Amino acid sequence: MTNKVTTHWKGNMQFESDNPSGKTLFIDTSEEHGGHNSGLRPKALMLSALAGCSGLDVVSILDKMKVKISDFRMDTYGELTEEHPKYYHTVTVEYHFYGDNLDEKKIKKAVDLSVEKYCGVMEMFRKFANVKTIIHYHND
């Protein structure tokens, strides 16, 4: 299977990039680097891709397990190297689950399945970064 993404320069430092879903997004840089801060940053998009991939897995697995949550978010942190080319050498994904009487055992299993088996973006990140995961349970 091959995915094709077309990224088109829109002038100055802005690009528009599509997705196989047909949706588009803008990529830009900060004003201090010559941009207009009008789009998403490329390296941070990688963190979004990681969280999105794992999040889709987790929600799907929890649904199959019939585990109820009222809210779920992920905070993803990437630490960049000092030298160019700068890349993430350490990444931490914090999973935050909210709800009444959360089933922590099943939630942990869902996260572990995503991290260890299903999330392809997680596997790609492991090729160049130390990836850490932390689960936080917020019982209402």
UniProtKB/TrEMBL annotation:
Give the highest taxon in the source lineage.
Answer: Bacteria
- Matching InterPro entries: KH_dom-like_a/b, OsmC/Ohr_fam, OsmC/Ohrsf
Q: Gene3D superfamilies under this entry?
A: 3.30.300.20
Name-wise, this protein is OsmC family protein
Lineage start: Bacteria, Pseudomonadati, Bacteroidota, Flavobacteriia, Flavobacteriales
